Amino acid sequence: MREHLPTATDCSLVLLKPVVLVGMMGAGKSAVGMALSKRLAVMFRDSDAEIEQAAACSIAEIFARDGEAFFRAREAEVIARLLREAPAIISTGGGAYLRPETRDLITGHGVAVWLRADIELLWSRVKHKDTRPLLRTENPKQTLADLLAARTPSYEMADLVADCRPDYSIEAMVDVVIDVLKDAGILTETPV
Question: What is the pTM of this model?
Answer without folding.
Answer: 0.88
